Please model this.
Amino acid sequence: MKRILTLILGGGAGTRLFPLTKYRAKPAVPLAGKYRLIDVAISNCINSDLKKIYVLTQYLSASLNRHVSQSYAFDQFNQGFVDILAAEQRAEDSSWFQGTADAVRKHWATLDNFDCDMIMILPGDALYRMDFRPMVERHIAAGSDISVAVNTVPRKIAHHFGLLAIDEEENIISFKEKPKTREEQEGLEAPPATLARFGVTEPNKDTFLASMGIYLFNRNALHDWMMNTGHVDFGKQIIPEAIDTQKVTAFIHSDYWEDIGTIDAFYEAHMDLLKPKPPYRFADPSRPVFTRPRFLPNTKIHGANLDQTAVADGCEIGRANIHRSVVGLRTHIGDFSTIEDSIIMGADSYDPAPRAPWESGTIEIPLGIGKYCHIRRAILDKNVRIGDNVKILNEANVDNADGEFYYIREGIVIVPKNASVPSGTVI
Model:
């Protein structure tokens, strides 16, 4: 594992996750109350003994760069590192990243000097737990040039992924990047024998094998693609062409994996985390998820009723009713407010002179949620200010809309970062 260099791609705009990506890169989006999406990929690497990591950034990268630099520092006796490779304009090419492969190519002068045998390429925006060591062992044993981690997806979301077919030896024999129509997906439905390898005992014709966006390249193979082609994307160009000229194998990952590419997927992943037996557990001491230590005080709860709810550090909650929700760092929630099926991301700091959760503001709406509010099926981004008697319920069941201080996407109300919602507002 010490001869592997890892690249985590964090440069995409994440348009399908807007407005959570309005002010930040997608991998910097807060997760589960106290983490960032990028923490999942980096933690999987560290737990797999992959400790030479570059994060490639471009779009709204300031908060992502800050989080990585503040969270991951190895001591001087360790050869590991987690460093940022930011997009750069060069004299010979002034364009920004044009795709996943182009992001790697534009940094190849730096990467080419690195002494390694293989290069692992990971997405920075998925929720999964994976030990990469079996994938590396399988790659070496099979004599592969390229390995692609795969999982199963249903037809309703298959158009978001690269779909593939494999033979009995798990060589990839067909690959299509994000086929939109049923006709384009024809012939890629996973057969029962293939699905059995994933533990699927009741297969159906609407299940596909999908690329997880995790690629393991022999260094020389990746060097040839970077130097001898102008291809800008792994899924659209390099992988489909490579299966005709190189040994490209699939690595089956049958554990939980969620590509958090849309508001609905982001929301449902959080609701899954709140189940009594969640499909993904942060509380796994053998494979911890790391993040930045913040040294916050304990959360204080003054008479609240909480059910199936995760509460992060540094919160102060009055006599509220909170059901099936995530309450993020430094959140203030006032008396007699009700929060249901929601994600409250918290705040980056405290107000200079914060009110107690049962006190009314007099001049400015304080950070957090006021009194007598009712919030259901919503996402409140960082540093929002919700006045008293605010109702965020979407009772008209609007699917998509843009308001003065809110957005509705896939029926979920999102209050964007730093927004203020006046007292008495009904959404």
In short: Residues 234-245 form the longest helix (12 residues).
